[in-house]
């Protein structure tokens, strides 16, 4: 198999292990007849009377189908808000399709209202099972009056276009929402609430995933205002948003009682990366996990990856110790400090790299979610843009280095979204190699021009018939993005 085929195999194995239906079946059981109990990862929840279900997110359709199969006649009614519909005809779960482009729309608002009404009607003997996954924020829009849905959507778009991270977006969203920031859990009281969560946020913070509809918020209006100020939006707010922000307490009040709620994460990026590592080792790779929390602007993250690739190739060429390698390590440590990737111990990672030689191919795996600052009007997504930046960075490194060690190695870089959709395109991401830019130039394509217009999808579509695009179709799951770097020494080494 080629490195490209290996990279694709690793990506698919990572996605398969976090597919919602089998993952939920591993986590949830229903036992007992007379006094049934819902068992979730070893925790027991008595089913006293009626059991209800709500859900929202890109992966919730598969979760809901599995949950209905497990719960059987104990499930009275359910409502889910998802991007597409495919449940059995006699399902007790009402499916509402919305947020087709991962932005709140009238259909998603209709779903949020239905879920709100169901939650408000619950009693102390009821149990509400809540299914949450990435994309849940857009699928559960319920702006605080007098904010209109289109006003909140416009504000979200402006934040995203200026490079706001998902954590920042969701802090603003929940500040302006009735159901987010613990709102759904408050409405469901006094019913018991059990949330099963597929995390698509770095660090798995409960109050940020889908903007935390069943978790107490750790953020205040002041946090929201600081984010809006950071992106120069304080003077571009609709009057309705100003009204809501000015009437809310600027600091966190005393923590409300959420003792009726149990939030359980059943899947994450880390789980997917662990499976990819297992598969890579089975293919004979010396495999290292860099981080499951990669974040930052794509061009900076691409520079980090390019420097890592250079360092591995220097080691393969017998140049792992010396002035050039020391320079690359110094650049890496500085980049890591600037990116502030949570929990990344790069010094320890670089030490592990020192022990790798050309005898075995190397696989470096990472996950997380980068950001893109929009300057152009092109079409693409963060994964395709990241891959294109990596390709350009490797090309430039080869151009300035005499007898570049990159030329003595075969290299493939892959970045893909686990949901199967990268931005408003049908691609999940893209592959690149050091030869990418030189071959594109021969076809008359300027990588720099495409990047300046945020037009990575158009580039990859035109270049070699789209061969470098990662196209999987919608996967039904969502645990952020996965990157894989595969390197093996060639005979020239």
Describe the structure.
There is one protein chain. This protein is an alpha/beta fold and 493 residues long. It is built from 18 helices and 15 strands. It is 41% helix and 20% strand. The radius of gyration is 24 Å and the shape is globular. The strands form 3 sheets. Strands 6-5-4-7-8-9 form a 6-stranded parallel beta sheet, sandwiched between helices. It has 3 domains: 20-142 and 177-217 and 252-267, Rossmann fold; 144-172 and 218-248, no CATH class; 270-489, 3-Layer(aba) Sandwich (glycerate kinase, domain 1). The mean pLDDT is 93.
Short recap of the structure:
The chain folds into three domains: 20-142 and 177-217 and 252-267, Glycerate kinase, MOFRL-like N-terminal domain (Rossmann fold); 144-172 and 218-248, no CATH class; 270-489, glycerate kinase, domain 1 (3-Layer(aba) Sandwich). It is 41% helix and 20% strand.
């Amino acid at each position: 198999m080629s490195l490209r085929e290996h990279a694709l195999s690793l990506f698919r194995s990572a996605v398969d292990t976090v597919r919602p239906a089998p993952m939920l079946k591993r986590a949830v059981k229903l036992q007992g007849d007379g006094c049934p109990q819902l068992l979730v990862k070893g925790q027991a929840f008595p089913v006293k009377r009626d059991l209800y279900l709500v859900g929202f997110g890109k992966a919730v359709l598969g979760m809901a189908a599995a949950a209905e199969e497990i719960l059987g006649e104990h499930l009275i009614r359910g409502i889910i808000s998802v991007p597409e519909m495919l449940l059995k005809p006699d399902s007790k779960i009402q499916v509402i399709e919305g947020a087709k482009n991962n932005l709140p729309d009238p259909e998603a608002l209709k779903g949020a209202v239905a879920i709100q009404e169901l939650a408000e009607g619950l009693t102390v003997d009821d149990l509400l099972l809540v299914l949450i996954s990435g994309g849940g924020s857009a699928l559960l829009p319920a702006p605080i009056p007098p904010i209109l849905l289109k006003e909140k959507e416009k504000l979200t778009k402006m934040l995203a276009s200026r490079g706001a991270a998902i954590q920042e977006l969701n802090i603003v969203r929940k500040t302006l929402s009735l159901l987010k920031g613990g709102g759904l859990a408050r409405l469901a009281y006094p019913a018991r609430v059990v949330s099963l969560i597929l995390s698509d946020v770095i660090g798995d913070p409960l109050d940020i995933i889908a903007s935390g509809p069943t978790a107490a918020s750790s953020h205040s209006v002041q946090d929201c205002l600081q984010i809006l100020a950071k992106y120069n939006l304080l003077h571009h707010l609709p009057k309705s948003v100003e009204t809501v922000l000015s009437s809310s307490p600027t600091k966190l009040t005393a923590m409300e009682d959420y003792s009726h709620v149990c939030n359980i994460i059943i899947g994450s990026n880390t789980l997917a990366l662990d499976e990819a590592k297992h598969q890579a080792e089975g293919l004979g790779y010396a495999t290292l996990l860099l981080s499951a929390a990669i974040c930052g602007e794509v061009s900076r993250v691409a520079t980090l990856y390019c420097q890592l690739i250079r360092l591995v190739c220097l080691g393969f060429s017998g140049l792992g110790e010396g002035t050039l390698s020391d320079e690359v390590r110094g650049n890496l440590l500085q980049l890591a400090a600037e990116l502030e990737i949570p929990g990344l111990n790069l010094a320890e990672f670089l030490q592990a790299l020192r022990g790798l030689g050309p005898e075995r191919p190397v696989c470096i795996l990472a996950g997380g979610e980068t950001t893109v600052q929009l300057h152009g009007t092109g079409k693409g997504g963060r994964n395709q843009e990241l891959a294109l930046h990596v390709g350009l960075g490797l090309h430039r490194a080869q151009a300035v280095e005499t007898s570049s060690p990159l030329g003595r190695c075969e290299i493939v870089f892959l970045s893909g979204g686990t949901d199967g959709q990268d931005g408003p395109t049908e691609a999940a991401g893209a592959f690149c190699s050091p030869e990418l830019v030189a071959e594109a130039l021969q076809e008359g394509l300027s990588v720099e021009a495409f990047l300046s217009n945020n037009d990575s999808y158009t580039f990859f579509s035109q270049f070699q018939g789209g061969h470098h695009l990662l196209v999987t179709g919608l996967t039904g799951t969502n645990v952020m993005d996965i990157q894989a770097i595969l390197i093996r020494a060639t005979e020239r080494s």
